[in-house]
Design goal:
Blueprint (H helix, E strand, L loop, with lengths): L1 E5 L3 E7 L2 E6 L2 E5 L3 E7 L11 H5 L2 H6 E6 L3 E7 L2 E6 L2 E6 L5 E7 L10 H6 L5 E6 L3 E7 L2 E6 L2 E6 L4 E7 L3 E11 L5 E12 L2 H6 L4 H17 L4 H6 L1 H14 L1 H4 L1 E12 L2 H43 L1 H17 L12 H13 L1
Antiparallel strand pairs: 1-4, 2-3, 2-5, 6-9, 7-8, 7-10, 11-14, 12-13, 12-15, 16-17, 17-18
Length: about 375
């Protein structure tokens, strides 16, 4: 005989010669050697390694101690103890010990991918293997796909889904977007290979169709803008393109506006950001620009020289016609001379002005 003790948290399943005989409640027992006792936790579903649940449930004693629950494929069974989630179960048959205080069993629908009917706090208590969490930012829309089929559009927020569903959420930005079309190489009419960078400001107009009907709405937009740009630029020579940058922007913008319905977007602005020339063309353009600037500088210099000469001529005419003005000009020059003279020696009985005048006259001679 063997002695065993069953505690209050378990029940014992007594098997004799491999066959289930009875349930052992809390206490001390003596069993024969041809018997085996399997202890099971009363807070967990009834499960034995020696017998199936159907076999155990045939026992009247088991039926009195355990309640059985069937869970179908569109349900999740949630079990609470003392107001908190103890565990949760998907499709299958389960038996729970009915002697646990404050135990509550609840069926929750799992037909929809997003968990409904449970508070966020309760969902957080569910087993991690049963749920998935998704966050949609306030500036985003979320496109919910279940089993690769579009189901619904989600606003900003936190969403919990059943993990047994194949769920995918595609995020789309609802803000105004800037799309750059860079490095587009195009041959002009005069066979110059240039690169043009475009910038497009746009916003998604139909979130669902932009994702479900287009593989990549931004790539579609870039491709169409490149085609429009190539068609336009190939009709003009380089000089015409450089002179009509705004016209290119206007043409591209108008063409993109015509395509809004097919791309499910709204274009608010489009324009040329850069026109990049080949190295040899840039050198030529710089040479031309330098020559133009030099010519402009020469014209300005000649104009200033003519103006200066004309001013001197007018001054000379005025002094020739007005002796007083001549004297004043003479005194002005004498003043400038005196500013640079440290010592001045005067001889004879003449006045200072006469002496200075004779000095200047002698220096000129």
């Amino acid at each position: 005989m063997n002695k065993i003790i069953i505690n209050e948290r378990t029940v014992g399943l007594l098997f004799k010669n491999g066959k289930f005989e009875r349930v052992l409640r809390a206490g001390k027992y003596r069993i024969s050697k041809n018997c085996d006792v399997e202890e099971v936790d009363i807070e967990r579903p009834l499960k034995s390694t020696n017998a199936t649940l159907d076999t155990l449930m045939e026992s009247k004693e088991i039926q009195s101690l355990y309640d059985i629950y069937e869970v179908n494929e569109d349900q999740v069974l949630v079990r609470y103890i003392n107001g908190r989630v103890k565990d949760a179960f998907t499709q299958g048959t389960y038996a729970f010990y009915n002697g646990i205080k404050n135990q509550k069993i609840e069926y929750v629908s799992s037909k929809n991918a997003i968990i409904e009917g449970l508070s966020d706090e309760t969902i957080k208590q569910l087993p991690y293997a049963l749920t998935d969490k998704y966050t949609v930012s306030p500036y985003q829309k979320g496109l919910l796909f279940v089993d690769n089929k579009f189901e619904r559009l989600l606003d900003g927020g936190i969403y919990y889904t059943w993990s047994m569903k194949q769920v995918d959420i595609k995020y789309i930005d609802t803000r105004a977007l800037v799309v750059n079309v860079n490095g587009q190489e195009i041959l002009t009419q005069d066979k110059v290979n240039i690169r043009i960078n475009l910038v497009i400001c746009m916003r998604i107009k139909d979130y669902v169709k932009a994702i479900t009907e287009l593989s990549d709405y931004e790539e579609h937009l870039r491709t169409y803008a490149q085609l429009v740009l190539r068609e336009y630029v190939s009709k003009y020579k380089l000089d015409e393109i450089l002179d009509n940058k705004e016209e290119i922007s206007r043409h591209v913008y108008e063409k993109l506006k015509e395509k809004e319905g097919e791309l499910f977007i709204e274009v608010s602005e489009a324009g040329v950001k850069d026109i990049i020339l080949p190295g040899e063309i840039r050198s030529i353009m710089n040479t031309i620009l330098l020559a133009e600037k030099k010519a402009q500088a020469n014209v300005i210099t000649r104009r200033e020289e003519v103006a200066s000469t004309r001013s001197l001529l007018n001054t000379a005419k005025l002094m020739d016609e007005n002796k007083t003005l001549y004297k004043l000009k003479e005194l002005e020059y004498l003043e400038k001379i005196c500013e640079n003279v440290t010592n001045l020696n005067l001889n004879g009985g003449t006045g200072i002005l006469e002496s200075l005048r004779s000095l200047v006259s002698s220096e000129k001679q």
